[in-house]
Amino acid sequence: MKNTIKVLRAEHDLTQADLAEKVAVSRQTINAIEKGKFDPSLPLAFKISRLFNKSIEEIFTAEE
Amino acid sequence: MKNTIKVLRAEHDLTQADLAEKVAVSRQTINAIEKGKFDPSLPLAFKISRLFNKSIEEIFTAEE
DNA sequence: TCCTTATGTAAATAAAACTTTACTTTTAGT
DNA sequence: ACTAAAAGTAAAGTTTTATTTACATAAGGA
């Protein structure tokens, strides 16, 4: 499961801490997701996708 | 987090056990998700949505 | 260089997702 | 009514996601 969060953050000029706050998780959680350490929960994926006005499929891709 | 899995299953004539097998989880997991006991992981949500040829947003909705 | 902000990482813990086993209830067919 | 299949449920245990604290590194500006 890959994602484009880092790019979306850059486009919106948000730090990991900014994004973490907006979706109500810890900064380390955002970092871990970006680094591919684990996948977000479905509710968290929804929060992130709504924040960036993208569909979940546009942000996350199941690398088969 | 609500979902329309029960309806989609009916449309595709699949039992909970059938669906569980297709997405490689236990029947109880499908049951629990349908009953709203917990949300699927993001990878599982992807598997289900691809099986039914729907977007994740079409199947799952964050009830506020 | 010094200081600050952002990012990366790690260990311990907590919480949520999922499994396994097993039993009960519902539903539908004959 | 009887039977079989499907659905519901529950407890105990494992795995994965997320938190907290804490420290280390990278990058840039003053």
TrEMBL record, chains A, B:
InterPro entries: Cro/C1-type_HTH (IPR001387), Lambda_DNA-bd_dom_sf (IPR010982). Coiled coil: none annotated. PROSITE patterns: HTH_CROC1 (PS50943). Gene3D superfamilies: lambda repressor-like DNA-binding domains. It holds the Pfam family HTH_3. Residues 5-59 form the HTH cro/C1-type domain. Keywords: DNA-binding. This is Helix-turn-helix transcriptional regulator. The lineage of its organism: Bacteria, Pseudomonadati, Bacteroidota, Flavobacteriia, Flavobacteriales.
